[in-house]
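Protein in question reproduced for absentees:

***
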Amino acid sequence: MQHFRRSLLEHAPALRRYARALTADAARADDLLQDCLERALKRAHQYQTGTNLKAWLFTIMHHLFVDGLRSAKSGPVLVELDAATLDLPAVQPTDGGLDDLGTALLRLPAEHKEVVLLVCLEGWGYQDAARILDIPVGTVMSRLHRARETLRQQIFGTDEDGGAL
């Protein structure tokens, strides 16, 4: 069990990075990471020795994140508006820098964002991402293509062939 715990901690930085990218909030990401590690410890008996522990942990985190989204949708969303918020000018397009990529990534639907984060940020292959997300490989490829196209349009205002929209 001690070896299992050490192995969990070895994967914590990658899990934290994925949680931060999913939630876009440090506190929520830390909570998600803690919940993931706690669930992994409680269900250590379900882990099959010799299989990919990192993929198992990412799968747990994915399920926790999706469950959290479902819970959030079932309750009311309260938003406080003040006078200053109502007078803000519209956001102007910028030069397509890294800030734009982060903003565009946050705007993606959750199912597209998860695929981009797993494949592009974490370096998982399509097969592994499909197992983590519990979807077919073709769906991973399709979502990744649509996500990349959406990002391209949001950042550069161009279509797939580079033409202006």
